[in-house]
Design goal:
heterodimer, A: 314 residues, alpha/beta, 8-stranded mixed β-sheet, 29% helix, globular, B: 317 residues, 7-stranded mixed β-sheet, 4-stranded antiparallel β-sheet, 13 helices, 34% helix
Chain lengths: 314, 317
């Protein structure tokens, strides 16, 4: 379905080049839900935007992105425009800014249908009603403006838009980040249900591993522009960074985290000044001397997990 | 130490309706205690926090500090604000991008005319974990990482040597791996300096990480409160039960439909009844829809405001 092969994204700034994504290879099977986790500056959103070539001009993309056997990076504009809605679509974070504030939401959902499907007005409004029903909104909401909706409802509208042209792949970038706990649970339930009902593949991006583990079959963790671990969401993490990221969101009721918040010293690295050796070594609680100089590629840890750490068994 | 008694805060809303953002709250924060005020957006938790800081005037009820009711005259408000300091979320938004770290932290001491400004700033930065402090004096917010900016905001609050910190979502905008360090800092400030804190958050994991006590707020009222272990491991109110049930690791989810209702139209009876899963399952009583509940007192013991939960709240009536 989707295959990334040594994807790189470098932002060309006036003064220097910023390597945001430094070689990411991933596969996503049809109907599979994959979670991509990472913090700010890890490159996870650059990966999402690169998949549909939505990056600004200053970004140079390398490697290959194969979508259903077609190389996205080599597509002509016309083909790309068609692919963007009908093969793969994106649900962005921040439901506040993704919608046009002065257009009724029914018209916003209908737009891709009219443009990409050449749907008639009547067909489009019928489909809008269907889509609203699928995301759990009443049909009369089509006449509302974004400011009349709550954050959760706006996120539902964004999901309806992404579903409009029946894509096979949905890329969801922090779809629940600004939402309250209960509303987040509602939206996650909706996403889970939609991918199950329609057999859609999902690439979900978030800084919150627990949210990803909730929806996705497999998890990939990024740090400083690279994958540090890929494995099933049910198993234990092996890379010290993934472990720290998981511990940052404690399990309520777990005595080990009671009055004992856990995190990492320091901050995620600046992509312009990456540390040598393993990029994680300055913050790593279990780093060896060799980690400061030698970089480690993803290596197998068990049958279905890979991790980029010297301490992970061959 | 810091206490709200029968607090009501209303705002005039659209048209003639008034929003009862805080609709009867008793809450106290003891010396050296960390209390988490938990609720969804729109439940009134931020208004409650602002009123506790003296930034919002209550419609009725009172705030008292060390047993003295807060009066809203300039001088006593000033003294009060030295004792009770606000730590805002989103350090990028609350720091002036054109002020250096030194200027940001020195602002409070200057307003209050504290002597020996440089020593005050330097000690506040050190206590917030920015060491050596002199290295940060001349830096601007954009030169700092998110975690460092949040520490600058905390240092600004510490500069006045307060007794109570009120922190509104102190880690919501931070990277996951940095969160733990900032929360550890709050715990350390309590242990080393005996600071009290009221942490306003929607994040139950955060409350589990640092809070001694939790108050769960729904539509302007506290619906359940008590020691953290008690409330989070054995929740009694159906709303608290639902909030905990949607955490990722939880087995049986109770996903409430709808969104937090409108503070201009508070339902009759128990204000939670239109969304209550017990009422929906037919396990409610007539009182749920008709009989208002009493306001919970400011006690540290476990308590719940529910007609059905088999507990203290009902026995008190």
């Amino acid at each position: 379905m989707l295959e990334l092969d040594e994807l790189t994204v470098t932002y060309r700034l006036e003064s220097s080049d910023v390597p945001a994504v430094r070689g990411v290879s991933l596969e996503l099977a049809a109907g599979e839900a994959l979670g991509l986790a990472g913090e700010s500056g890890s490159g996870k959103s650059s990966v999402a935007l690169a998949l549909l070539r939505l990056l600004p001009r200053s970004a140079v993309v390398g490697g290959r992105v194969m979508l259903d056997g077609e190389d996205v990076l080599a597509m002509k504009w016309g083909r790309l425009r068609a692919v963007r809605w009908s093969s793969a679509s994106i649900v962005f974070q921040g439901a506040q800014h993704g919608l046009n504030p002065v257009q009724r939401i029914g018209d916003q959902i209908a737009e891709p249908l009219l443009v990409h499907r050449q749907a008639s007005g009547a067909d489009a409004s019928k489909r809008v009603r269907e889509l609203l029903a699928q995301v759990g909104l009443p049909a009369w909401r089509a006449r509302s403006y974004p400011h009349e909706l709550s954050g959760g409802q706006r996120q539902r509208v964004m999901i309806a838009m992404a579903l409009a042209c029946e894509p096979q792949l949905i890329i969801a970038d922090e779809p629940t980040t600004a939402l309250d706990l209960m509303v987040q649970a509602q939206v996650l339930t909706l996403i889970r249900q939609l991918i199950a009902d329609h057999g859609i593949s999902l690439l979900m991006i978030s800084h919150d591993l627990s949210v990803l583990a909730d929806v996705c079959d497999r998890l990939a963790v990024m740090y400083a522009g690279r994958l540090v671990e890929v494995g099933p969401s049910s198993g234990e993490f092996r890379h010290p960074y993934s472990q720290a990221l998981a511990a940052a969101f404690p399990t309520v009721g777990d005595p080990a985290s009671r009055l004992a918040p856990r995190g990492l010293a320091g901050d995620p690295p600046d992509p312009q000044q990456l540390p040598g050796g393993c990029a994680f070594h300055p913050r790593c609680p279990v780093a060896l001397e060799s980690c400061a100089t030698s970089d480690v590629q993803l290596r197998a840890s068990g049958t279905d997990r890979t991790a980029a750490c010297v301490l992970v068994g061959e | 130490m810091l206490e709200a008694t029968d607090l009501h805060v209303e705002f005039s809303g659209r048209g003639s309706r008034r929003a009862r953002a805080v609709d009867g709250v008793n809450l106290s924060v003891g010396a050296g205690e960390i209390v988490a005020l938990v609720g969804e957006s729109g439940c009134g938790k931020t208004t409650l926090a602002r009123t506790l800081l003296g930034l919002e005037r209550p419609t009725s009820g009172k705030i008292s500090y060390d047993g003295t009711p807060l009066s809203y005259s300039g001088r006593s408000l000033r003294t009060f604000r030295r004792q009770v300091q606000l730590v805002l979320q989103d350090p990028m938004g609350s720091l002036n991008p054109r002020h250096t770290v030194y200027e940001a932290v020195a602002e409070g001491p200057r307003i209050h005319g504290l002597p020996d400004e440089e020593a005050v700033v330097s000690s506040a930065l050190a206590r917030a974990g920015l060491r050596p402090p002199e290295r940060f004096f001349q830096r601007y917010p954009h030169e700092l990482s998110g975690g460092q900016r949040q520490r600058v905001v905390i240092a600004g609050a510490l500069a006045l040597d307060p007794k109570v910190l009120i922190a509104d979502e102190p880690v919501a905008s931070l990277d996951a791996s940095v969160r733990g360090e900032i929360l550890s800092l709050l715990l350390r400030l309590r242990d080393d300096l005996g600071l009290s804190a009221l942490v306003v958050t929607h994040d139950l994991g955060l409350a589990w990480n640092i809070a001694d006590r939790i108050a769960v707020m729904y539509l302007g009222r506290i619906v359940e409160s008590g020691p953290t272990e008690h409330v989070l491991k054995d929740p009694q109110h159906p709303y608290t039960q639902a909030l905990l049930s949607v955490l990722p690791e939880s087995p049986n989810r109770i996903v409430l439909t709808g969104e937090p209702p409108d503070p201009t139209r508070i339902p009759t009876g128990c204000r939670f009844h239109p969304r209550c899963q017990l009422v929906a399952a037919g396990k409610g009583t007539e009182a749920c829809t008709t009989q208002p509940l009493q306001v919970l007192p400011a006690t540290t013991d476990p308590q719940v405001s529910c007609h059905v939960a088999d507990l203290v709240g009902r026995d008190r009536k």
